Every structure is written in C-alpha cells, then in structure tokens.
Amino acid sequence: MTSTYILLPASQHLVMDKVCLELHKDTSICSESGKRENEEVESRSSYILLLYAAITSLVSIPPAMMLGSWSDKAGRRSVMLLPFILSLLSGGVLLAMVLVPSLSVYWCLLAAAFIGLPGGHVSIFLSCFSFLADITMESSSSRTLRMAIAESMIFVGGMVGFLLGGYLTQNIGLIAAYGAYIACHVLAILYILLWLQDSKPLNSNLGIISTKNEVQESGAMILKYASLSFRAVFKRRSCQDRLKLNLLIICTFLNNLVAIGDNSVLLLYLMYEPREFTTAMFGVFNSARMFLLGAGLLGLFPLLMRCFKEMSLAKISVVFRAASYALLAFSTTTWMVYLVAVLGMPGGITQAVIRSLSSAIVGPDEQGAMFSFSASVEATCIVIAAIIFNGLYPLTLSTVPGMPFIIMATFCIIVLILMHSTSSTTICVRFRKVVKLQFPKVVALTASC
C-alpha cells in the first residue's frame, strides 16, 4: 500500500508532464504549473489516467480468479511474489519515461499492464489473507485480530505512501519517487524469499486436474482454476453457510464501492465552495483520516473485542462510517470536515470482520479460491464506482454537492442490514443445532414430513 500511494501522485504528475511536452514541445512552458495545467492538458491527461486505471483493474481480474485457487494447491509464496516482480518491471518503465523525455506518454499503459497482469494488489490481498487464514485456524477471535492488523496496513501504508509520495514528487523529483516505489517491492521480495515460511500446501478436494494435464492444456488449466473460485463461493454448504458467505461478499463489494467512490470525488468536493480546501489541506486531512482508521484497527479494535462480539463491532463500525459520510455531505466548514475523520475512525473494523467470517466458512483447501473471488469483486469496483460517483457528482453539483456521500451513507446502511441478516442466519443455525441435539426424534420426524 505504501508503494501504491507513492505511485498515485507520481504517475499523475508524470502523465501531465508528458502530455504538456507532447502538446507544446517546450520544456520551459511545462515547468510552470500555471501554464501546464490548462484545459487541453487536463482533459487529455484525465483520459490517459482513466485508461491507466481501467487497464490496471480489468487486467488484474482474470489472473486473480485463477491464482487464488492455484495457491490452495501450490502454496501462497509464489502468488505473493508475482505481483512484486512484475511491479518492478512497471517501475522500470516509468523510470525510463522520466529519464528519456522522447518516450511517449502511452508507455505508462505498458506499466499499467505489468501491474495488472499478475493480479496487482488483488493478488497481494488474496495471498496475504489466505496465508493468515492458513496459520490461524485454531481460534476465530485470533484470526479476526490478525485480519484486523493486516487490514490496518492498508491505511497505515496508505498514510506513509501518501505523505512520502507527495514529498518526493514535489521536492526531490520523480526519479526519487519511482526509486522509493521500486525499493518497496525489492524489500517485499527479499522478505518473502529469505524470511517467510510458506504454509503447508494443501491437496484440494475440489477436483483439481493433474500437473501433467495442466502443462499440456494451459487453457483448460486457467478455466479450471477460475471455476474453482466460483465453486468455492456458490457450492452448497450446510447450515445456510452459502447464503451467509454470499451476503458477506456483497458487503465486501459495497464497502469497496464506497471506498473507491470516496477517493474519486473527495478532492473535488473539498475544493468546492464553501469548504475551499487547498491541496496541502487535503493532504493533511487525508493523512489524518488514514492514521485514525489504522489506529482504530490496531488499538481500538483489540480493546473492544474484550467487551463485544466481533459481529456487534462490525455493525457499530458501519453505523459510524455511515454517520461520517452523512456529516461530510453537509459539512460547510473546515472543523466539520476534520470531525468526519474522527467520527469515521472505527470504519475499518467491518471489512476485517467480514474477511475473518468469510474465511471461517470455507474449508482449509478453499481459502485462496474464496479470497480470490472476493478480491476480484473488489477490483470490479474501480470501474463501477467511477461510473456511479464521477457521473453523479457533476449532475448534483449545483443543487446538492454532497449527494455522492449521501449515496455512500446509504450503501453503508445496506451493509448494516446485510450484516444483521448474516448474524440472524448464524443464530438460526445455532438454534437448529441445539434442537437437533436435544430433540433428535422431532427433527427426524420433521425431516420425514
């Protein structure tokens, strides 16, 4: 996540520089931000960045659908390594674009393909969370806490990357920013190769084809492993576990839709009157918000776990998140906007609990397949969120500028309802188990009827 947030401002800066240079053919003009940021440069840069995001997200879905199921058999380390190795190539391409001014701006699309080809952050998420599930099967509470710590790194890494990326890009240069991006991936590769011990490879009972057939029929292998991800999510399970898993994946989809929609319109909204945030103010707010979300998972959540059940905490977290978006939609002053960050502090708990509950439903040989499907669903949110929120914001700007955040709060309420339905399903299942143990004859008679 640190490397991802270093890459975001650096790539936007690089694309705008390249577009300006191709349009004006004059480095002196493009070195002045006021002349560089004209309508023609902005519109063309926006188009290229949209292509960049689309390639990164859409290309990552098919590999992620396959790699998760494959990791259930071959182990997690190989799936962890692939995204970091190809991201090194993407960093090399972007660095070459800085060092060689004659290279076209469209070379960045090759860098996007390198990031997306092994599944990108989708593969990293599914392999890391699957690894945690593998080594924490003894207790649901310890698994949830480990998931929460891993989830918090999204925000902690985001905060560090956001601050570091902005500083390096603005004060030192793009070479330093891409150097830090490459260094993050080198450190991850060294950790995986030299330190991390793979969880024991498992033999799947889902009918994986043999290795010889996989070598001979690579196309069939891809389809086979992709189908395993669907099968792990939609196959029949006892005690309504399939329904519970499907509801949790829908919650994951809505949570990620809100998160990406937030990122896509927040800067535009805060810079609009009467808030009129500067770029520096936005950086401080975003960093503080990520810090509080990470602190909520690392510090607040373990303490609350001693007093409340994880499902209750997930519901409370959703309520606070919905309230923060409702407040943001009607914020008119700077202090109200910063209060949003404080109010949304517990907001990251929900997704950590969802990941833990989902991993508890599937078997040990289905962890990668399930997280693969879930992460692929998250990847589709990039395009869908852009269509919904970037399309809605200009339409409501003159009437209700905060309408996108009202929609986000509504999605949070839907997540709350689905989470309640999930917990109700769990209570119903437990009641059935008690009845079956205490009154076996009644159960048998009911089944025969």
From TrEMBL:
Membrane topology annotation: Multi-pass membrane protein
Cellular component annotations (GO), alphabetically ordered: membrane
Transmembrane annotation, as ranges: 47-67, 79-98, 104-133, 145-168, 174-196, 245-272, 284-305, 312-330, 369-393, 405-429
Descriptive protein name: Proton-coupled folate transporter
PANTHER family in the record: FI18259P1-RELATED, ZGC:174356
Family: Belongs to the major facilitator superfamily. SLC46A family.
UniProt xrefs under InterPro entries: MFS, MFS_trans_sf
Pfam families hit by this protein: MFS_1
Coiled-coil segments: none
UniProt keyword terms in alphabetical order: Membrane, Transmembrane, Transmembrane helix
GO molecular function terms noted in the UniProt entry: transmembrane transporter activity
Subcellular location: Membrane
Major localization class: membrane
